[in-house]
């Protein structure tokens, strides 16, 4: 058994002890079908939290997307994203104009893996989530049969705000919504806005409290 | 009864747990039989929810009794770790529902990872002189200092008050439970479990009797906006029932019957008042039970169960130490 095989469950345990990491499957049951989870992104803790909220048997096939420049900066970060979480790396900047940044994601989907994407592209700490990046639209276009699951992570910005390294114990939930797909003749803008709205609708207590 | 006095403490404690678990088994068996006789399908909504409440309470009692037993058999270190975890989960629940802000982050880290463990380490080492002042004196000052260093003056007093209150109730209050296990009375060595048992029993009796009294008396609620069931007469009935049961239990404690009555009254009365205070805080946070926002926070309602104990334990502990001039 490798150290990485222990690290995953250990991180999951820590996430549960600190946040409760409760998964609420509101729109669909947990299943091993191929899916793309799209979630709001507020902190580095998000990935671990979703990881802990997923049933253990789903975890190996759900691969998160990590920015190559940030997550391969140090040996530890590389080990964490490669060996423990088996993430898919994407480049935020193109090395040459012909390179398709989505290529690694397409490859992972072809292999039958599920993906976990934070379509805002970066962590947003304040208020509403940022507009979605276009990548998710291109993936949905190329793989129309893969379910897209809107996912809302609640309260985590209080656990570990941007810039902090030690998490504070506060109860968090992960809500999984109803699977969606690209509609016929839906253009890029409409699709991105609709999925973003579906994701935001999952926030417990709604937006006007 | 007099024969029991000559048993060794270990045997007496074994008897206590035997009786406790025996009673729970009887109640559970009775519940199972009753359920078999009256299937749930034939019930209207009201007894159905009463039954669900009964099952929840019974489950909580089982968990409580098991934890109590675990705390006892695992000794000083084990019981402090156990109650330390309890404190941790209670404080987590408390902080989740209070709207702390981003600039409270460092303060919360100090509360969870410095103050809480320190308090329990002090308890485990029986340093009762430091234990009583660590949070009211040192932490009380440290918390606003850390908050001030965050550089955010917005709602400063309110933010500090929330965290100080959380620490006071969930850490300081609850840490008196293992302290009771470790308190040494002359000629009463090794029987700390009885003191904790005494405390938990009188506090629960008071809560149950107050609830029963307020239902049967149907008095006008004294503080309608906070609690619909609290009235002064119901409180007196609750506290006096607790005191009465305490006096009946005097033989498990180092107290005489009269002393047991007064101490039980203090514990029972402060426990039910503490529960009222926590209810006021819940109202402010906009919830009815700490647990009922489970869809939002995943909270499990632990604080609902321990609120009364958090208030009763320090009052009981310090009255006992003061009255019997225990120097440890």
TrEMBL record, chain A:
<dbReference type="InterPro" id="IPR002123">
    <property type="entry name" value="Plipid/glycerol_acylTrfase"/>
</dbReference>
<feature type="domain" description="Phospholipid/glycerol acyltransferase">
    <location>
        <begin position="35"/>
        <end position="156"/>
    </location>
</feature>
<protein>
    <submittedName>
        <fullName>1-acyl-sn-glycerol-3-phosphate acyltransferase</fullName>
    </submittedName>
</protein>
<comment type="pathway">
    <text>Lipid metabolism.</text>
</comment>
<dbReference type="Pfam" id="PF01553">
    <property type="entry name" value="Acyltransferase"/>
</dbReference>
<dbReference type="GO" id="GO:0006654">
    <property type="term" value="P:phosphatidic acid biosynthetic process"/>
</dbReference>
<keyword id="KW-0012">Acyltransferase</keyword>
<keyword id="KW-0808">Transferase</keyword>
<dbReference type="GO" id="GO:0003841">
    <property type="term" value="F:1-acylglycerol-3-phosphate O-acyltransferase activity"/>
</dbReference>
From TrEMBL, chain B:
<dbReference type="GO" id="GO:0005886">
    <property type="term" value="C:plasma membrane"/>
</dbReference>
<feature type="transmembrane region" description="Helical">
    <location>
        <begin position="130"/>
        <end position="151"/>
    </location>
</feature>
<keyword id="KW-0812">Transmembrane</keyword>
<dbReference type="GO" id="GO:0004605">
    <property type="term" value="F:phosphatidate cytidylyltransferase activity"/>
</dbReference>
<dbReference type="Pfam" id="PF01148">
    <property type="entry name" value="CTP_transf_1"/>
</dbReference>
<keyword id="KW-0472">Membrane</keyword>
<feature type="transmembrane region" description="Helical">
    <location>
        <begin position="62"/>
        <end position="86"/>
    </location>
</feature>
<keyword id="KW-0808">Transferase</keyword>
<keyword id="KW-1133">Transmembrane helix</keyword>
<feature type="transmembrane region" description="Helical">
    <location>
        <begin position="302"/>
        <end position="324"/>
    </location>
</feature>
<keyword id="KW-0548">Nucleotidyltransferase</keyword>
<feature type="transmembrane region" description="Helical">
    <location>
        <begin position="12"/>
        <end position="34"/>
    </location>
</feature>
<dbReference type="GO" id="GO:0009273">
    <property type="term" value="P:peptidoglycan-based cell wall biogenesis"/>
</dbReference>
<feature type="transmembrane region" description="Helical">
    <location>
        <begin position="193"/>
        <end position="213"/>
    </location>
</feature>
<feature type="transmembrane region" description="Helical">
    <location>
        <begin position="163"/>
        <end position="181"/>
    </location>
</feature>
<protein>
    <submittedName>
        <fullName>Phosphatidate cytidylyltransferase</fullName>
        <ecNumber>2.7.7.41</ecNumber>
    </submittedName>
</protein>
<feature type="transmembrane region" description="Helical">
    <location>
        <begin position="107"/>
        <end position="124"/>
    </location>
</feature>
<feature type="transmembrane region" description="Helical">
    <location>
        <begin position="234"/>
        <end position="253"/>
    </location>
</feature>
<feature type="transmembrane region" description="Helical">
    <location>
        <begin position="259"/>
        <end position="281"/>
    </location>
</feature>
